[in-house]
Each structure stands twice: as C-alpha cells, then as structure tokens.
Amino acid sequence: MKYRIFFSFIFLLVVNSAFGQVLPIDKKATKETVNLYKNLKKLASKGTMFGQQDALAYGLNADGSRWMGEKGRCDVKTVTGDYPAVIGFDLGRLEFDSTRNLDGVPFEDIKQAIKDTYKRGGVSTISWHFNNPVNPSKSTWDKEDSTLKKLFLSKDALLRYTSWLDKVAAFSKSLKGSKGELIPVIFRPFHEHTGSWFWWGAGHCSPEEYVKMWRFTVDYLKNKRGVHNFIYAYSTDLFTSEEHYLERYPGDEYVDLLGFDYYHRNAPTSNDDFLKNAHRMIVTIGKLAKEKKKLYAITEMGLEQVTEANWWTNIVLPLIHQHGLSYVLVWRNGRPDHYYAPYKGQKSEQDFIQFYQLPQTLFSKEAQGLYK
Ligand code: BMA
After folding, report:
1. What are phi and psi of 124, to 5 degrees?
2. Which atom, in ligand 1's list, is nearest to the CA of 103?
3. Cα 129 from Cα 138, distance rounded (Å)
4. I need a surface site. Which of 30, 102, 170, 329 has the fewest CB within 10 A?
5. CA distances from 83 to 51, 86, 109, 124, 337 (A)
6. For residue 53, which atom of ligand 1 is closest to its CA?
7. CA separation for the pair 56, 44 (Å, rounded)
8. Is the distance from CB of 192 to CB of 235 less than 8 angstroms?
C-alpha cells in the first residue's frame, strides 16, 4: 500500500512536469485558490471576464449624481441585469488602520463585498495604493526618489513596512466563505511600475530594487505570515517590448498572472493608436503567459466618461476577441467626471448591453464554478 502511494506520487510528479504545472506559485495555496487558478486558465479559452473597480461600493445615478453604500447596487447590474465577473478593491490606507480606504469605502464594506462576490461565484482582485513606508506622510503619488533603497537600509522603515504587511495578511485571513474556507483573491501590488507616478515607479528605483521589494513582499506574506489565498498579479503600465515588460519581472516563482494597465485617452483621434498598442501588448503578454504557464489579463483599462457611444463593441471587443485574456477590468465609477462603465442613460449604455450579450464576454452568471 505504502509503495502504491509512493509510486502514484512519483507518477503525479512526472505527469505534472511533462505537461506543465498549472499551479499557483504558492505551494501551500488553499484548495479554493488552486481551483480558482486552474479554472481561470480553462475559462480564458471560452471567453474574457468583465471586471470593474469598486463596482459594488458606489456609482452614478441616471442624472449623473453619485450614489454610495447601497448594498447589492451596482451600475453594471442596473444596465445589464448582471454583475461584473471580476470586482476590484483597493487597500490604500489599510496601513493606517483607517476605517475607510483612500476613496472613502469602509473596509468593512470591502470585506463584505468580497464575501458577496465569492458567494455569487465571482472573482475579487485587490490593488494597494499605499503610502510611502519610509516617509508615511507621503502618498502613493508623492514621487519620492530611492524609497526602495532607503527602505532596505533602515531598520525602522522596514519594520514599519512589515507591520503594514501584517495588516494585509490579517485582512486576507478575515475573508472567509460559509464553511470557514479562505476566499481567494488576486493580489496586485506595485502596479504600473513602468511609469513613474508612484514611489515604486521606474524613475524612482532600479530594476533590482523593484524585484527585491516584490520578492520580499511575497515571501513575507506567504512564508512568514501564512497567507495562502493570494494569486499574485504583476501589472505594468505601457511597455514597448517584451524586454521592457520583463525588465522588472520578479521571476516565475513570484508571479501567477501577467497583466498591464492601459487607458484610452483622446478618443476618437487616438482610436487606431490605442488599438495598435493594446493589441501589441496583449500579444506579448499572451506569448509570455503561454511560455511561463501563467494567466494573463488587462488589469486596468478604460476610457474616462466613455465618450464613444460604441466604445465597447468597437474598441474593447476586437481586443478581447480570441485572445485568451482572463479578464479586462475597467476603473471605478467614482465621480460624474471620472467614471469608466456606463450607468443608466449614459451614452454607451446600449452598446454595453450588446457587448454584455456577446458569447466572448463573461459576466457573473456566465463565470461560475471557479472554486470547485
Ligand atoms: C486613480 C483615481 C483616484 C483614486 C485611485 C485609487 O486612478 O481613480 O481618484 O484615488 O485611482 O483608487
């Protein structure tokens, strides 16, 4: 019997290495996290999930004014009858034990929304616009040079940073399903680092420092704090080539999902350019994801105020069509001048409904069974 177990183990090892591991980087990832990772891979061959940041927290009324904190409400649902399959959340200010995040959403609501999303079968992803651990009064956007270098040279700063990671770990462990199981989330730290608007951006640290910070963070969460419900997403901003994309890549042992953030600005003048660039970047990360056996997605995208009535079928559809992307996530419906998904009566509403009905686009009802 013992031998049989031993040989099946060896057999599994051989099969796994021969056919490529379809497993997240965390060897101790919870069952649901492993299942999510595997199922996301399968689902990407059927279609691309639609996602939105803060979709459950607030949005816009038909007259363009803002609503906030109405349980169950969601602009995408008002327009299509279904929720986005992916919902984005941000942990900015968790580092200060604030009750609300940087955009005014109570952390308790965020936890509840992640639980509701999981219960519905959907996927949650977390970004973290956090303050500077070397100089905590400085925001994400304060372009402080050499923060990463200073961080690893200062015992106090590093201690502060790990105490912030402890809060992220505690947050991740508070996310539980009905049977007490941990809810998996896609964690996407240090994003848009090919740009220089955050303190971890390309202009403020070397590639080696960025990689060191990333690995330190993942190792700390996983190995020191026992976080085992994260799928790690690496997401650049605009990049010019495969080499550029990989310049600060922390390594295959540290990343589960390859992504990028890319916004469409100055439409319609820039339509062709946007499509060309986005297509080029998707092809690059698609190729890398295939080689590295990772997931890939457009982790942030959008046209502010969706000023093109047919933006969804004209611009987004050709990008996701047959590309194997797991998801595209548009940014938040934050203000009347800063929103990325249609609300009732918005000019792209009808086009978005058409987009919703296409077989290539997956919303919550079509993206089910991901945790089994
Ligand atoms: C930015 C804007 C900001 C917001 C930040 C974090 O793109 O939406 O208003 O604070 O994301 O969500």
Report:
1. -110, 140
2. 10
3. 12
4. 170
5. 9, 8, 17, 12, 23
6. 12
7. 24
8. yes
pLDDT at 17: 46
Test site for ligand 1: of 98, 131, 332, most ligand atoms within 8 A of the Cβ: 332
User: pLDDT per residue over 142-152, tens digit each?
Assistant: 988 899 999 99
Q: Point out the ligand 1 atom lying closest to the alpha carbon of residue 129.
A: 6
Tens-place pLDDT, residues 252-269: 999 999 999 999 999 999
Burial degree of 116 (CB within 10 A; 0-12, 13-18, 19+): middle
Ligand 1 first shell, C-beta below 6 A: 90, 102-103, 129, 331-332, 334
Please report where in the chains the tokens 């399959």 appear, as a residue. 85
Out of 101, 102, 140, 329, give the residue to mutate to test ligand 1, the one with the largest number of ligand atoms within 8 Å of its CB: 102
Is the link from the previous residue into 24 a cis peptide, with omega within 30 of 0?
Answer: no
Task: Measure CA of the first residue to CA of the last residue in the chain; give whole Å.
Answer: 29
**Please, what is the average pLDDT of the chain?**
95
pLDDT higher than threshold 50 for residue 223: yes
